[in-house]
Amino acid sequence: MGRFDHRTVLVTGGTGGQGASHVRAFHAEGACVVIADIAEETGRALAAELGERAMFVRLDVTDEDSWSAAVQAAEEHFGPLSVLVNNAGVQNPAATVEDTDPRVWDRIIAINLTGAFLGIRAAAPSLRRAGGGAVVNIASTSGIGGTAMYAPYVASKWAVRGLTATAALELGRDGIRVNAVHPGVIATPFITQPAAGSDAPISDFYSPEPFALPRLGEPSDITRAVLFLASEDASFATGSEFVIDGGLLLGPALKYPAAAA
User: Does the 8-240 domain belong in CATH 3.30.70.360?
Assistant: First the structure.
């Protein structure tokens, strides 16, 4: 018996480093998973690998009609949604506010923020039909503290926090919980490969050495939190924010000699 037996789970950005990790874990816990992404070849291959309890839907998270079609396809194939994971997100090329192209700003906000808004809007009726469920929004530690050179990304993730709190207040009486996860620096292509229009990946400028836990995070570190929040184990948690960053936001950890034996 898995925690998500007979539950329908839709994960946006489901082919990426974190997204695919979430998809595989939900599937392993018995869920029927909907891999929602624009990367059709990769998404269909992942669905074929996982088998009959998995399907791919092409989803442009910035498009309302695309969302409607994705939720409809999920319901027709597996039944109403029990879980929505708003995982899709993109990073902007490093630039000061003054040097940021407004078109870049619009794109980042559209995917990272409007995508989550449209997702909750489209999924809420389906979650009600399932008798309730959970929404997990993937935000970022950049949405708690500022990060120079990444204003569009930071602004989008700060706004996801407000969206999470508001949706939690509005949907709680329907048995729908809404929470946010704030990953730190996670070892995925999002970090290790350059953003579109950028020459170098974020990992070139980031060292985990000062963290209390001096390593980059792994997708599984975030996935375990997502599964917890989506499950009945978190039945009394809504409107909450879960930081998983190895201590990044705590500030530098001082080096000290190990205690004498």
Answer: no
